[in-house]
Amino acid sequence: MTAAFPELAASILMLPPGTALDGEIVAWVNGRLDFDALQQRLSAGAKRRAALVRELPASLVLFDLLTIDGRDIRQEPFDRRRQLLEELARNWQPPLELSPMTDDEAVASDWFEDMSAAGIEGLIVKGASQPYVRGERIWIKVKHRRTLDVVVGAVIGPMRQPEAVVVGFPDDDELRIVGRSTPLKPAVARALGSLLRAPGGTHPWPEVVSPGAVDRFNAGRDPVQLTLVHPTMAEVSADVALTRGAFRHGVRYLRLRPDLDVPVSWLPQVSR
Question: Which residue, 28, 47, 36, 38, is CA-closest to 5?
Answer without folding.
Answer: 38
